[in-house]
Specification:
- By secondary structure, the protein is an alpha/beta fold.
- The protein folds into two domains: about 25-210 and about 325-470, Zn peptidases (Aminopeptidase); about 210-325, Alpha-Beta Plaits, CATH 3.30.70.360.
- Helices cover about 40% and strands about 15% of the residues.
- The protein is built from 14 helices and 13 strands.
- The protein has helices spanning about 1-15, 30-40, 45-55, 65-75, 140-160, 180-185, 235-250, 290-310, 330-345, 350-365, 395-400, 420-425, 430-450, 455-470, and strands at about 80-85, 95-100, 105-110, 165-170, 195-200, 205, 210, 210-220, 260-265, 280-285, 315-325, 385-390, 405-410.
- The longest helix is centred in the C-terminal third of the chain and has 23 residues, at about 430-450.
- It is globular.
- It binds zinc ion.
- Zinc ion binds near residues 173 and 198.
């Protein structure tokens, strides 16, 4: 009894320090939650249609014109205020509803991946007429986030809530461009909380971190000549690229085991009998810590210069992205997990399990996949400490500026790797539809809880402040540089 009275007193004291427009009298509880879930059930078919459209468009980063327009169209019709083409990216947008504090952001992505065309079927079968595919499930990601915002708008009006709901339409996640340049343009400055989700193999909250990453292109310039008739009058830009790659492959041995370097040659010259006058290689350099990624990249720049010297060519460098690792947030991750447990894992049926089993078949044969179960149908517990994710995401940069948390839901077969044809197939199937609906519900429930509970926002902020102490955000993207116009 005494403890109860004390905590009431604590609530009263902390409320008195909150901004005046913070709704201390917002209606709590069950009817708002019920209305969110019912609204999402009522628009499920529309959301599935949007997912299927974006899945079919399969547009790669910075070319997601139809995908962004599809989401914007629905949000505009629902009454959201829209800003398109933000941060000098035609496919970036912000959709906002409501007013005042707290300002809750929800991240949406919608870019596809090159060379991953695939039908919705259990065996590898490229879809006719397109080369890209949604191997990361961003069709569901964007649509689920939009669904959460639509449900929030519905209860906002009905229950006269206060606060601002803001959907960030963030292009080119796969090349870690969208959020980084939106952030540099100051678009996340006034957010109180940011929520996100990602289609995955499991149902869990992201109490995790990711890898920091620098993305850069090195263009070598030489002199063209007849490769057989007058090789002594030529300087091969491709030699520069190859020597640089050899150097980078030796460098691998002397960086941390958890760091990663990968590249593709985007231009290797025209044909063998012409000494290539220009050649280009595109690098991703990753590390668990942003400082390490930048140090590795400094070394790589020296290697590029070395390649140029050895081949008597010149090299020019273009940094496209400098992305930071995710800063986890414990109170927010707990809040998201509580809501994920409330909604529960997706309710898969036999047809979903059959498709997932087929998708796993090649993985058993090629990679000795151990998972016997086709789909994750439980909710994972909170890990004892933040786990390290193998990939990178520009959600990381947002999380350096505002308390951020998210979740993944089962949208892919258990054990299937990211960026695989298996995941493209699942992303266009009822497996992903069910995972997406769970995510939309959890995001909306979490956001409305934050809108109604100032103490939860304060807790998230305190956790954020503690982790960000003596951790200034720095970037190696040249000051004032605009986002690239294309990914390659
Ligand atoms: Zn992704």
């Amino acid at each position: 009894m005494r403890r109860w009275a004390l905590s009431l007193l604590a609530v009263a004291i902390s409320l008195s320090f909150l901004p005046a427009d913070y709704a201390a009298d917002q209606p709590a509880g069950a009817s708002v939650e019920k209305d969110i879930l019912a609204h999402l059930d009522s628009i499920e078919k529309d959301l599935i249609d949007v997912n299927q459209d974006i899945w079919t468009y399969a547009e790669v980063g910075l070319e997601e014109h139809r995908s962004a327009a599809r989401l914007v169209g629905v949000l505009k019709k629902a009454g959201f205020r829209i800003k398109e083409g933000v941060a000098d990216m035609p496919t970036a947008f912000i959709a906002e509803y409501g007013e005042g504090a707290p300002v809750i952001g929800i991240l949406a992505e919608y870019d596809a991946l090159p060379e991953l065309s695939q039908e919705v079927t259990g065996t590898k079968k490229p879809a006719k007429g397109r080369t890209a595919g949604h191997g990361c499930g961003h069709c569901a990601l964007g649509t689920g986030s939009m669904g959460a915002a639509l449900a929030l708008k519905h209860v906002y009006d009905k229950h006269k809530l206060k606060g601002t709901i803001r959907v960030y339409g963030t292009p080119a996640e796969e090349t870690l461009i969208g959020k980084v340049y939106m952030l540099l343009a100051g678009l996340f400055r006034d957010l109180d909380i940011c929520l996100h989700w990602h289609p995955g193999n499991r149902n869990r909250t992201y109490y995790s971190t990711s890898k920091a990453m620098v993305s850069a292109k090195f263009t070598f310039h030489g002199i063209a000549a007849h490769a057989s008739g007058s090789p002594d009058k030529g300087k091969s830009a491709l030699d520069g690229v190859e020597l640089m790659n050899v150097g980078a492959n030796f460098m691998r041995e002397h960086i941390k085991e958890t760091s990663r370097i990968h590249y593709v040659i985007t231009n290797g010259g025209g044909q063998p009998n012409v000494v290539p006058a220009t050649a280009q290689v595109w690098y991703y350099v990753r590390a668990n810590d942003h400082g390490d990624a930048v140090a590795h990249f400094d070394w790589l720049k020296d290697i590029a210069e070395g390649g140029a010297k050895m081949s008597r060519t010149k090299v020019a460098m273009q940094i496209d992205a400098d992305c930071h690792e995710i800063i986890p947030n414990l109170p927010l991750s707990r809040l998201v997990l509580r809501n994920l447990n409330k909604v529960g894992a997706p309710n898969f049926d036999d047809a979903d399990r059959d498709l997932a089993t087929q998708l796993q078949t090649a993985l058993h044969a090629d990679f000795g996949l151990k998972d016997k179960k086709p789909l994750h149908d439980e909710v994972d517990e909170l890990p004892p400490a933040p786990y390290q994710d193998g990939g990178s995401t520009d959600v990381g940069d947002v999380s350096w500026h505002v308390p951020t948390a998210g979740l993944s839901t089962a949208c892919f077969a258990l054990g299937s790797p990211g960026h695989s044809w298996q995941n493209v197939a699942a992303a266009g199937s009822p497996i992903a539809h069910k995972g997406m609906m769970v995510a939309a519900k959890v995001l909306a429930l979490s956001a409305v809880e934050l809108m109604q509970d100032p103490l939860a926002v304060k807790d998230a902020r305190a956790d954020f402040d503690k982790r960000m102490k003596d951790r200034p955000y720095t970037t190696i993207i040249p000051k004032g540089q605009k986002a690239p116009k294309a990914i390659r």
